[in-house]
Structures are given as C-alpha cells and as structure tokens.
Amino acid sequence: MQTRRIRPRTAAAGLGACAALSLFAPLLSPTSATAADAPAELYEGHVQVDRGKADDPKKFTGQVFDDVNENSKLDGDEKGISGVAVSNGVDVVQTDGDGRYKLPVRDNMTVSITQPSGWQVPVDEDKVAQFSYNHLPEGSGDLEFGGIEPTGDTPKAVNFPMIESQASAKGEQNCPIASDTQAYDKTEMGYARDGAVGDLADRNDYGACGVLLLGDNVGDDLSLNDELRDVYSQMNGPVRVAPGNHDQDYDAVDDAHALDTFRDQFGPSYFSYDVGKTHFVVLDSIEYEGKANRKKYKEKISQDQLTWLENDLKNVPKNAQVVVATHAPILTHKEVVVDNAKDFYDVIADYPNAVTVGGHTHTQENLVAGETRKEWAAAGIEKLPNTQIVAGAVSGDWYSGGLNADGLPYSFTQDASEPGVLTLEYDGASRSERYTVRNESDDHQLLLGVNSPEWRDWAQKAQDWQDADKDGTAPKEISERVVTREDLKQGETWLTSSFLAGTSDARVEVSFDGKAPKQSEHTQPGKGEALAKGWEYTDPYTASQNLRTSGNVGQSSSHLWRTEIPSNLDLGTHTAEVTGTDRYGRDFTESVRFTVVEDEAAAKTESQKLLRQDGFDAQQKKEVRDPKGLDSEEAQSARND
Questions:
Q1: Can you say how many angstroms the Cα of residue 456 is from the centroid of all Cα atoms in its chain?
Q2: Where would I find the Calcineurin-like phosphoesterase N-terminal domain in this sequence (predicted)?
Q3: Which of 17, 25, 489, 530 is deepest in the core (most CB within 10 A)?
Q4: If you ran DSSP here, which 8-state letter would residue 435 be given?
Q5: pTM here?
Q6: 3-class secondary-structure state, position 502
Q7: How far apart are CA 191 and CA 607, in angstroms?
Q8: Which residues touch 434 (CB under 8 Å, ≥6 apart)?
Q9: Is the pLDDT reported for residue 87 higher than 50?
Q10: What's the pLDDT tens digit per position in 447-459?
C-alpha cells in the first residue's frame, strides 16, 4: 500500500504590495501521518489520458481514483472512488464500486467530474482546478487565440485523480466569487492584482472551497488569459473559472465553438462541484450569435445545459444548499436578463434553498426570494422564486474614474457600489454572504451623502456634459455634503445611504446630531413597484465622483435608503450617524458631516472648501482612466439606461 506524500510548507511569491502566501500541507513527518488523518489539501496534478485504442469508440470510459501518491497516475494499488458524478455535458452517470464510468461519446464535448465533499481535485501550476477532458476530434480550426487542437479518436480511458480532503468535508465554508475582472490590457490587470485580487491573496479562509471567477475574466483579448492566470495563481485554494461574453472566440463560426479557447485553457463552460454541504453549479448564460454577427450575443441558457442541470440535480437532495452561478444573472433589480428564465426556474423548482449568483452588469445586488417587481411580472416572473445575488465586479465600473490614493481607479459602479468580491459563507446548513470592497475591511458597508435639489440640478448638467463627450466647460463642481437653508425648507432633501449589505428585509436608521434615530426608506423594496429611477433615487457620493470623471450613473440601486433631513436645522455643520442592520442581524455604523448654508453663493464657497479638503483638486491632476471597458456593450447599455 502506498503512503500519502506529506510536503513541507513552502512560501509562494507575493503579489506586489500584497503579503506573501504559503500553501500548507500538515506539518507532520511521513512516518507519523496516514492518509486518513492528515490528507494534503491542495496538490498539483492533471487528468490522466490513455491514448490507446478505445474498445468501443462510441463509449467514453475511465476511472475516478484516489491518487494517494499524488502522481496523477492510476497505479496498481490505488483504489477507484464510487458514487462520483461524471458527465459528457448532457448525460450524468455515477461511478461504480471500482470508480469506473461509461458515457456516450458526443462529437464536441467536455467530460468532467463533480468533485464530492471530502475530496479535492488537483490543480495546475496556476492553481486552476483540473477535472475535465475536451473531446474534439478535428479540433477548432483556425481561431485567432488557438481554440482546441485536434484530440483525435476516442481515447482508451480518461482517469480522474482526486485526494481526500478533510477541509472540503466541513460544513463551515467560505466561498469567494470574483466576477468581471475584465482587464482590457496589462495596466488594468495590474489594477486587479493590486485591488480585489490582492485582497484574496491576503486571505486564508477559503482554501477548501477555492475561488470562482464568474466570467468576463478578460476583455475580448484572450492573449491576456496568461496574465489572468498569473495574478490568480496566488490564491490560497483552487481556482475554478466560468466564461462570460468577453471570454469568447469571436472569430468562431457559431456558439458551439465560441468557447473553445476558454475550454482549452480553463475547463468546461458548465460544471458542478460539492464543498461541505453545498452543491455548486456553474452555467454558461451567454449564447453567441456567430461570426457573421461579431460580438453579438443573447443572455440565454442552452437546452443542453438545462437537460444536464436536470440530470445533475438528480444526485442532489431536494433540501440541500445549492448555488447556481451564471455570468449573466437570471435577473436584476431592473429587469429579467436571461431570455429563458422561466424554463430555468422550472428546472430548480424543487430546490427551495437554491440561490442564483450572477455578474455581467457590474452591479452589486441581493434580491430576496419572494420579492415582486413590475418589470419582472411583465417578463413572466410574478414572484422571485429563489434569491438572486449579483456579485459586483473586481473591475468595478470598468476601471474608470480618477485614481485614488492607492493609485487605483475609483471605479464606483452605476448602482452606488465599489470594486470588490462576494463571499458566500456556510455554517453547516445555513448560508450568509458578504461583499468585501477592494482594500477595505468587511465593515465597510455604507456610502453616505446628501441628495438635495441643488445637487440634482448640478448632476443633470454634469450628465449633459458627459453625454456631449465633455464638449464645452464642465459645470462648476459642488460638494454633495452642502445644502442650502432654502433646499431644506422645500423638502425632498435626503440623507442617502448606499448599504452594500442591504436587502429588502434589512433596516437602516439615521440619527441627526445625536437625536432619536429615524427609520430610512428603502427606495426599491421589491413589493411590486416599478423601477425607482431618477436623480432623486441616486447616491450623490459615488455619482458625484463619476460625473466629475468618466464613470456611469444608473440613477437607481437595489440597496439605497434615504431619510429626509429635518427642515429646521440651523446654519453650520451637522452630523448624521447611520446604522444599517442586515438580514443576519449584523450592524454597520458610519457617520457623515454636512453643512447647512444660507444660499447658493455660500454653497459654492463651502463646496470648494470641502472639495479641497476631500482632495478632489489633487485627484484631478492624476490620471483619469476612460478605458476600453467603457466602450463595451454593458457600459453603453448602462449609459442608455
């Protein structure tokens, strides 16, 4: 019997200013360790392919095995693993008592396994999980970024190694999801590295679950995949990758080959895996319209995937925690996004604990099952059947805006959020989640400002200037923390709170100058209302910076609260203390100081003073990024909205 190899701790190279990481095996001597009590948790390896002649070229066969010595080879004394799901992209079978499987061959398919809890598949040198094999006998043909080389005839066997993992068996798991890294060049990849990706490199709480990249990992130029791999190679756990619309081979003839380069470099375009008590599913929600319609696509889940999903879920208990991650979200607070959303919801209807997670829109949303919206109903979704989370974006608003003190673009998103990463947290059978803003602590959850008539007037002028490609003189900048006495008397001047952890069942309270707190109004509560859109539903803190530079302002948000400021406040500076309580009972408190002045002339003077204090004069001397990402279809759509 072979013994499991125990490796010493070795340090990995660091990421810029990020702390160096170590990937650990248990610090035990080989003689004192056994496979049962000290399994390695992360190891380098690959899928084993036997290129001999297949006994039946119409059948795909092989074994899933316990790779005890971690050499990626099925050795004579290594055992197969029973009950592991294996798929050809439509059919799903489970391995027998010897770990063997048999599947029908499809001409263009990716065969993959579903990692069970208590096990860990190998990773390559960049930490990308290895659990699949592409079968494309004739190859992709002449694609700019390579595609898949001809794989030839059906191999004699494809064997999938795994090792035991105590960590992946635990019910307590943290599972980060990094969406829309979407770098269009190496400069932007550097922003990602020194921002949200660097934050992940500094964390050591997700080793078993690993990191899921949720599509639009690069911005059309697939040669940047090497850079992407490099920055994510510092993760402290396996990396799994989902595709987005900007990860496609746009010179492919049709959708069947649009992800060939992605499949070659990262793995299947849809797959599943288990960690702890949670079943993760990744789907491809982009349907490429073909070379003749270059770069055009639909947000849609193919019928093959829906069939596969039905087959995949047959192995999952109905009461299990399930995550279905798709690049394009099934819906957002604005609209139903995926064309066949109803068909998808029918497939997961028997899984009440399923949550869907998306990216794509560069927004950060948490929409709770049971909510209703006028726009959803018009698209046939009368009530949200499953919680939908939109995971924000590593790139924020496509790396736009002036550079902050860390030399990174502000990239405030159109829905009043910031660049960051979503983490799903599991404690046994229950789930919570948090959104961690780039270079900030988990407690950074509130963005505060004053939305007044004068600010709304300035915002419209600034938007008109943006829409005219900044032709002419920009409107004189004002601070969103100044309000005139007249505006207060008119009413409709609000203290706004963009509560990143906020949901329809969260609570926000505001105390002005230490007085009894007032409960804030949620602008988009999901009670059947239409989209609340306009300057009066906008966070002035993030919108002001975007309107001064090059960002988008959507004039709506799923996580904005507002409280009318008392009309009788005296002239001078006042303090508002805001406490947001999320649906899990976690409290977050921030304060903002704002100034009441006599008239518009005083407002202009006070604004310039505050802007200088806030450093905006200095910021404008720094680089203002208006990168190619802002020319993407998503960004143009956001502007049109």
A1: 31
A2: 76-135
A3: 25
A4: E
A5: 0.91
A6: coil
A7: 31
A8: 422, 423, 425, 442, 501
A9: yes
A10: 999 999 999 999 9
